[in-house]
């Protein structure tokens, strides 16, 4: 019987025969169900986390340009027009805009919050970011038409306790020297707009016109650097390295993956951690196959003895039970994979259906900044989950299959 395909045929028959012991069949079904549940859960959760990461990236990058060119000395900061023209003409660069940035304190009444104050030109800013499209009150252009106007993030405005039309006091990290001593420089600004992206920027950023920022910071004609938008978000790191090399040692060129890198690394690490935790569910289900095969080996001892007397070797017997276990694992993984893919592709519609059925709002956009679960199905994740699950299923079959191959046919037939 060596070299024949009998292990494949017999292993398949053991897996799906209707004449199996009912308890063994029940354990087999539970094992397959556990594998399917674990695989489907993994695919859905990874897709949802991909969706959240994409949503977070899109929200943050609606405010954050693809790259920054920071001027390291005052001479470069004052003569920024020529570097701006050079960067704008480089391959891969779509738009460039100047900016002025400073850490400040914003206060109203007894409330005081730290913030990053950006001085921008609304016309230039529209080419490198989507700030104007994120406003929920007022207009971004008002920071130029309204003397000392400021646009705040909604969370920052709520913490300070102001709204559109209110006055907020900005305290700058510069001292004003008077005969009475040195005092921090401060100025009253009028809130002319509120923006909201549903990310940390809502609680820490404020925008004024470039002219207002230069007057507040006594930076006549100078800027902190240039904001850069590239034609490809994921090509920005390479393009910004080239920008830094082209402009020389007087500047520091960085891209969005550096300014926001810690956040996205945290999201990636969270995805890996959750995947490993959910993979333990698959592992438990996979090792239920051990119980199924152990019972199958005990049930099929007579069959094993007959096969050995007909010439089947130990390797063939072991292959039979490996195929038996893999058939169960493969069916569970395939079922879970199909369910997981279907759910991932339709989870937003499923969320809305549940909300319509129950009348409950699962994701209130005022609380979560989303109205439905975002999901992005990546086939590489599906392939990884399937291969990892099949690997666990294969490992689970090895010990019972090895025990089956060690059964001595003479001992079984003696007491048959």
Automatic annotation (TrEMBL):
It is found in: Cell membrane. InterPro entries: ABC3_permease_C (IPR003838), Lipoprotein-release_system (IPR051447), LolCE_TM (IPR011925), MacB_PCD (IPR025857). The keyword DNA repair does not apply. It comes from the Bacteria. Residues 277-409 form the ABC3 transporter permease C-terminal domain. GO terms for cellular component: plasma membrane protein complex. Its main location: membrane. The keyword Transport applies. It is a multi-pass membrane protein. Belongs to the ABC-4 integral membrane protein family. LolC/E subfamily. This is Lipoprotein-releasing system permease protein. It comes from Chromatocurvus halotolerans.
């Amino acid at each position: 019987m060596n070299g024949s395909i009998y292990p494949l045929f017999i292993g398949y028959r053991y897996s799906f025969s209707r004449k199996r012991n009912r308890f063994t069949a029940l354990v087999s079904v539970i094992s397959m169900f556990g594998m399917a549940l674990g695989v489907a859960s993994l695919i859905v959760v990874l897709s949802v986390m991909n969706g959240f990461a994409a949503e977070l990236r899109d929200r943050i990058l609606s405010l954050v340009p693809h790259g920054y060119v920071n001027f390291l000395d005052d001479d470069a900061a004052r003569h920024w027009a020529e570097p701006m023209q050079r960067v704008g003409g480089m391959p891969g660069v779509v738009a460039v805009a100047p900016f002025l940035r400073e850490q400040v304190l914003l206060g109203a009444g007894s409330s005081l919050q730290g913030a990053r104050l950006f001085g921008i030109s609304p016309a230039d800013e529209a080419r490198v970011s989507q700030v104007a499209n994120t406003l929920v009150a007022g207009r971004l252009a008002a920071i130029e038409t309204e003397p000392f106007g400021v646009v705040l993030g909604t969370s920052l405005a709520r913490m300070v306790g102001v709204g559109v039309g209110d006055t907020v006091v900005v305290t700058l990290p510069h001292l004003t020297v008077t005969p009475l001593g040195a005092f921090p420089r401060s100025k009253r600004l009028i809130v002319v707009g509120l923006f909201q992206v549903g990310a940390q920027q809502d609680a820490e950023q404020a925008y004024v016109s470039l002219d207002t920022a230069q007057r507040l910071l006594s930076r006549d004609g100078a800027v902190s650097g240039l904001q850069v938008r590239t034609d490809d978000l994921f090509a920005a790191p390479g393009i910004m390295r080239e920008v830094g090399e082209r402009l020389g040692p007087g500047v520091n060129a960085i891209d969005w993956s550096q300014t926001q890198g810690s956040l996205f690394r945290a999201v990636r690490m969270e995805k890996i951690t959750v995947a490993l935790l959910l993979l333990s569910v698959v592992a438990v289900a996979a090792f239920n196959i051990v119980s199924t095969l152990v019972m199958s080996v005990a049930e099929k001892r007579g069959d094993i003895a007959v096969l050995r007397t007909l010439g089947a070797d130990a390797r063939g017997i072991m292959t039979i039970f490996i195929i038996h276990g893999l058939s169960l694992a493969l069916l569970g993984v395939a079922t879970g994979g199909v369910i997981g893919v279907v759910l991932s592709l339709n989870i937003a519609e499923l969320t809305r259906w549940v909300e319509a059925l129950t009348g409950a709002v699962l994701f209130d956009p005022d609380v979560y900044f989303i109205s439905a679960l975002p999901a992005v199905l990546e086939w590489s994740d599906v392939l990884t989950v399937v291969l990892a699950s099949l690997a666990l299923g294969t490992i689970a079959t090895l010990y019972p299959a090895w025990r089956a191959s060690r059964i001595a046919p003479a001992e079984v037939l003696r007491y048959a």
